[in-house]
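Hi everyone, sorry if this is the wrong subforum. Our group has a chain we'd like a structural model of before ordering constructs, and none of us has done structure prediction before. Sequence below.
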Amino acid sequence: ETQPGIFLTVANPYTCLLVLGFQNDSNTLVAYLPNATATGDSVNIIGPQMPSNAWVHVAFTWSTENRAKLYTSSYLQGASGEASILNNARGDHNSSPMTITLGKYNGAANCEGIQGISTSQTFMGSLDEMFVFARELQESELIKLANQPRRIERAVVPRTKNQLTYYS
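Answer:
Right subforum, don't worry. Here is the predicted structure as tokens:
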């Protein structure tokens, strides 16, 4: 059973890029993109209420053409055409590398603002298999990922073209 909290953050010491988590009130999936619009506004994409004690495939995609999309089990749950900027580092820190954090974010960047979730909340639940790709996946590829059998335990190896990393 999951508890409200953040389960994934992409940030550098200066800025947050993406935060995924569950809301306080109802286990609702939320994607938060700080400063993601051309005017510097933040975007919240509200997904579905997630079931307890069941595995669900969660995917977030972004491209300049299709913008931000949030999927569960390969079904589109929410999107934002306003999220036009994903590399939202401001000022002199555009080249600072981003770090992916699974679980509670303890970095220096201010990642507050995700609707209904405090960054100080620790995610209580299980994550299995994380993929990072260098391009936006299409729905047919998300269906394939959501329905494939489990892979090798504790692997850190690219499996497909454009896949940067894989964790199990």
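For your construct planning: The chain has one helix and ten strands. The longest strand covers residues 5-11.
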